[in-house]
User: Fold these one by one.
Assistant:
Number 1:
Amino acid sequence: MGEGGDMLDSYGLDKDELRRLLADTIQGADDGELFFEQTQSESLIFDNGRLRSSAFDTGQGFGMRAIAGDLAGYAHSGEMDMGAVRRAAESVRNVSKGYSGVLAGSPPRANHKLYEALNPVDDMALGAKIALLEEIDAYTRDKDPRVRQVTASLAGGWRRVAILRASGEWVEDFRPLVRLNVSVVVGEGTRQETGSHGFGGRNSYEFYLQDNGLEGGWQNAADEAIRQALVNLEAVAAPAGELDVVLGPGWPGVLLHEAVGHGLEGDFNRRKSSAFSELMGQQVAAKGVTVVDDGTLNGKRGSLQIDDEGTPTQRTTLIEDGVLVGYMQDRQNARLMGSTSTGNGRRQSYAHLPMPRMTNTIMEAGDHDPEEILKSVKNGLYAVNFGGGQVDITSGKFVFSCTEAYLIEDGKVGAPVKGATLIGNGPEAMKRISMIGNDMELDTGIGTCGKQGQGVPVGVGQPTLRLDGITVGGTKA
């Protein structure tokens, strides 16, 4: 498996025969496709001064789908031969028996190139990757005597997809993806704290390791992990109660992604199970708030040239000046809602049905200087980094833990705090945004989104924000 040549060549699959079989299978259906996939991935983890694990994996398979109204028949297999495809067709065609739909038209052709068809696994020799992890480990341990443990990891690979549309059109995409991460444990006496930082995207390892002004190379990842851990080492107990909260730029957009983004996916709104259902055209956020999902950003982790249904990705405005104006759609949900796909039909692998998913979800910049926003808060919380969180899509309620946060006292950033959580309701929180910074940043390329058991790479971004009167759960009242 590799970058060149037709994907079907090595499997003895005939494209014309597949076209005839697919056309026969989805006769009477609204839509359908054959989805083919090849993957190659690796993961290296260097922990406590030694290579703890080194994994390499290849995969292949296909999935066939037929759509009839709100029903979908789907069959998949890791066997890439005509016998397996014919067996899948027998299972799938049952969904459209007795159904008489109008076959959906093909999506437009993609006209953007967001990443190269390269293989990151071959980008560096295995020995060079191990040597790099050893160097990161040594550098990080030498940086500060309080560093007690270092874990450095590399993960990379590629995913080649090909889609045979119901119309007989064949489209392909070759998707590289890499990530580097450094985690540390620091300690003084009996107290220990952690810090972590990583970066990556749809390019080669070398692209991110060189000094290209993106993330500053692996030294920056190590320095940032240590900085976070040392900050937490000095942290005091977090306050609890209703506070004005300032969110930092970049990765804190994960709160936007979870608390708001999922609620703007088409399937939840078609089923009326989202807190944003039936609110199209209404004010759902403060004036000045504009949220977009943009799958067309060059080289970003969440970007795709085409989605997993063959539709080109696009920049979709979801909320404009506080008003709900759009949802993220795949083909099936868009059709049922009288809309068109926004290029957000995504699946974890050939073994999964596609569904509406985010790509890079961003709140656009405002016009306030970040220092001005901090100075406007007399007593509050400055949340710079987040860890895990939980969201209820139907109610919009969320709970998010802060991994780096500070007190704000008389408009100045004060002591770091430990154990702070933000508790609220997504739609309500959007209305509590009172100031939007001019410093919009994207995250560094670390996000993976989970939905209904499927994980896909995503990006988030936002400027500095002030939210008024947010409930903070802490470790002191």
Note: Residues 126-143 form the longest helix (18 residues).
Number 2:
Amino acid sequence: MRSRLCPETSRAEQIEFARRIALKLLDLRSRSEAELRERLDARGVPEDISEELIGRFREVGLLDDAVFADALTRTRLQVDKHGLARIRTELRRRGVGEDAATEALSKVGHEEELEAARAFAQRRARALAGLDSRVARRRLFGALGRRGFRGSVVSSVLDEVLGETDPDTDDMAL
């Protein structure tokens, strides 16, 4: 924690101090309101100053949890190849409200999620190529699940990438 505010600092100085911190943080990457609030608090910015600054930033469009949720969802799906369940968890962890998270996730079509799972599975399958087919299927099943893909997506991608369902693993819970 670098410089903290002194109690005798004027309100205008407190706002300017908080503004500089907030702009620097937002310059590094976009953040949710909750993340920015948390970082300002960690730097010793009083709650009333943080709330005033966050309100101003919201008014001028520098902070928007809905836009943040949309961008994070797209990045995690298209670049990181995460499923919707994992993205929802990350949005919650970052303090995005349920309405904004649900709206962002609802914009993702089944085919988009399927394509992300497929791309991840194809990459992972190359590393599993030398393994017994049951072991490879089980490991890929687990990897896709940890990535947050729904059961229907996982089973579809497994069949596509590794071939038809193996009778020994057909009873795996999705």
Note: Residues 11-28 form the longest helix (18 residues).
Number 3:
Amino acid sequence: MAITTRSEHACFGGRMGFYSHASVETSTDMAFAVYLPPQAQAAPMPALYYLAGLTCTDETFMIKAGAQRLAAEHGLALVACDTSPRGLGYSGEDEAYDFGTGAGFYIDASAEPWTKGYRMASYVNAELPALIEAEFPIVTDRRGIFGHSMGGHGALVSALRHPDRWASVSAFAPICNPGQVPWGEKAFSNYLGDDREAWKAWDASELMRAQPRADTILVDQGTADQFLERELHPEALEAAAADSGQKLTLRRHEGYDHSYWFIQSFVADHIAHHARVLRG
């Protein structure tokens, strides 16, 4: 599994690196980022994977969230990947911010032509961890996942579909019920086709209702989020948790919007949430 080093930097006693590799799942070169805490110089560390939102890249969280200091304190590696394949050349791929490039929605597309490269679920849940664990000092039995907005949706869906692969999960302002909101309807109808029953396999609220996890899921949401009423619908996640018995800590924060100022404000709680599970 050959990787290309784009850049590496000393950071809080550890190493912040930006890399790329040729992906089998997406049929493109995929960019990713890894922060190794100083403890990784002595022993392999658990890894916490972050999934970013619409229009973002593998660099967004690593540059904007201020999480490396916290990861160094807790002894966690951080991994972030790009938000979609890039450059496949499909018609409509680059026409809108909320579909195609930068908007892979962390699902495996089943409709043509998207099925031949838009396989972000398989990339995040299988190919990327296998690469990370082969090339970096990362343990193979303890992984956590979290994300923001579209990436919050991706983290919740990944953890609910694959509880054996992800030991912990949290989300910032996730798209909680994508099958019922404009962003999700646009993406799912194109990536998956018109069968709304098939969409439920990629909808966090539907999955939580059908197959809850044993652990507690942490979700933070700002009340001044400009996408709250139209796209995010945290009340759908609360209803699903009530129906299934899923342990859910959903916190609403007065005055916070959808930006990385919100994420910076509460990322310490999320890192600590994952560290309790991944570090014990």
Note: The longest strand covers residues 138-148.
Number 4:
Amino acid sequence: MDMQMNFVRKLPVPKELKKQFPLGDEVRKIKEERDVIIKNIFEGKDNRFFLVIGPCSADNEEAVLDYMGRLVKVQEKVKDKIFIIPRVYTNKPRTKGTGYKGMLHQPNPQKDEDMLAGIIAIREMHTRVVKETGFTCAEEMLYPENHRYLSDLLAYVAIGARSVEDQFHRMVASGVGIPVGMKNPTSGDISVMMNSITAAQAKQKFLYRGWEVTTEGNPLAHAILRGYVDAYGRSHSNYHYEDLQNLIENYAISKLENPAVIVDCNHANSDKKYMEQIRIAKDVLHSCHVSSDIRNIVKGLMIESYIEDGAQSIGDGIYGKSITDPCLGWTKTEKLIFEIADAL
């Protein structure tokens, strides 16, 4: 008996989509310039602080562009201290496999899934962000084979807590050519994350999109601390001073290149209580002031933020409000960014 899958239609390969929706020289130049700055920050040649910030899921192009337009004005005011990489996450992991899986699956969250419309929609939205704001953005690499639909646009990639143990994600991360943040797994086992960074920094040879490929390894693969969940389903944080010192010790043993961590202020660190992100951000900055070793390794923060506070159900129709995890609204976000800049 053959596989029980219906092959609906063959989708364009990334090369075809890139030809159909090409980038202009201006967009390419912006990406190249930003890639150099980002690399310098991870290598310690530039001491600016990263903020990987934006909606939990980029579900509505107009609201996302509105948010990015606001964000770029704030970036201009804090550019000496902070370098912003906006979150434009179009693939959403679903723990139970059901529900809204992001714009890649559903360009319109209230309509059926449409993968062809999805790959076009995410490419066009990312392109618009670069053209209209000069930002190149962050994505979660949920499906490694889909990365190449956006590979000429992205500034940063995160590997989620449930993907970080997967061999394929680790190998693809070794060849994406931009910084890749490896989240600690949901169990909180730091050794899993460190092994993942080691694999991503190593040279690899594997099968990718029907090709045998080799990579040189990614020296900008690094840690993301996002908290964890215990055997009883309770959230525990791992952003505290002691957690960061422990990570420094793990890095020292591992002999990895460019030791770095981005602290995710939401998820299990905040128990998804979005307002806690403000306090957590300040707590991490306090640890940076207490210890120069921590300041050297903490390259930035990840914050979930949108136009309106909180979250809504699909169909509620509130403009700029998350339909996935609750986010910090714009007014609080703007205030927090200025407070972070003042504290650096």
Note: DSSP finds ten helices and twelve strands in the chain.
